[in-house]
Amino acid sequence: MSWLKSWASFVKVVESGSMAAAARRLDCTRAQISKQVGELEQAFGVRLFERTTRRLSLTPSGEVFYQHALAALEAVESTELAVRNLGDLPRGTLRISASLSFGRLYVAPLLPRLAATYPHLRCELVLTDQMVDLVEEKIDLALRLTKAPPEEAVARKLVFLKRVICAAPAYLAAHGEPKSPPELAEHQCFDYGVVNGGVAEWRLTDRHGEELSVPVSGRFQFNNVDCIMQAVLDGHGIAILPTYLCAAELARGDLRVILADYEPRSNFGQYLYACYTPSRVRLPKVRVFLDELERLFTPLPPWER
User: Fold this and answer.
1) What distance in Å separates the CA atoms of residue 295 and residue 292, rounded to the nearest whole number?
2) Whether pLDDT at 196 is above 50
3) Residue 80 and residue 121: Cα distance in Å, rounded?
4) Rounded to whole angstroms, what are the CA distances from 285 to 82, 91, 107, 120, 157?
5) Which of 37, 36, 35 is nearest to 61 (CA)?
6) pTM for the whole thing?
7) Is residue 147 located within the same domain as residue 194?
């Protein structure tokens, strides 16, 4: 019933007034809506919309098709409601991708709960700091910290991930505490993106919104944030760390925030997104996992409670 999605998209465009608004309501991309409408027009051999730079309006053929499509979709919905029994129960295999540290701390504990609640559901968690191809690797949902979610995927913003500049009290006692960003150049600094002993730039924003770049370096580096935090805890230097990873250590006093008036900026962005292909939007297994994530992060994420 591939025609069904195209008909539903057409109706939503009419009701919403634009393809972009319809895409938001259907949890898919504008490009996908445009393609579906184009395929309908090609199949019928008529134009369904008059397009201008400001608005869409139905052609006479579009008016006729809208009335019939609306009636057909209402009939299909009634039929689905009549025969739906166990169709809403999550079943099959749910494949989730997440970064190594975040997935280990916050996603892995959710899976036993899901498996216990839904006996027909199997869960697989793929932990990697690399970007995954949702289609090629058959990922139902990927948790990504990114500035720009992939255009071909639906992306739901989940939670803000704060970062802080921090060091162990022992390091600060031995080497002094930098009082201004330029002083960081005199210290051993760890940076996730530098693994060859080179120089990186930390981008910081002050309380007035002014951004500055500070060169930092260190005599040894890691491409894993867990290793970086352990090195900082052991008193080997300073790092920018996400609070989801170091909140407990900060609360215990094992780490101290320094240069608190400056907010670190990240190349990865500041928000965690749930990304999934449009075909996964209405799958019960994806829906229940999104519900679990919402409970996890609302009203506050666990590391801020």
Assistant:
1) 5
2) no
3) 23
4) 22, 6, 15, 10, 19
5) 37
6) 0.68
7) no
Angle at 258 between CA 172 and CA 194, to 5 degrees: 85
Q: Are residues 118 and 176 in the same domain?
A: no
Residue 92's DSSP bridge partners are 121
Cis peptide before 284 (omega within 30 of 0): no
A 10 A CB-CB count for 95 gives: 19
Q: According to the model, what pLDDT value does residue 86 have?
A: 42
Q: Do 29 and 116 belong together in one domain? A: no
**Calpha distance 102→124 (Å, rounded):** 15
Instruction: Please list, in sequence order, all residues whose beta carbon lies within 8 angstroms of the beta carbon of residue 250, skipping any fewer than 6 positions away.
Output: 164, 166, 243, 256, 257
Q: Is 240 left (phi over 0), alpha (psi -120 to 50) or beta?
A: beta
102 and 25 in a common domain: no
CB 167 within 8 A of CB 237: yes
Q: Which amino acid is at 153?
A: A
Length of the chain, in residues: 305
AA identity, residue 170: A
pLDDT per residue as tens digits for the range 164-178: 999 999 999 999 999
Over residues 68-72, mean pLDDT: 89
pLDDT at 80: 65
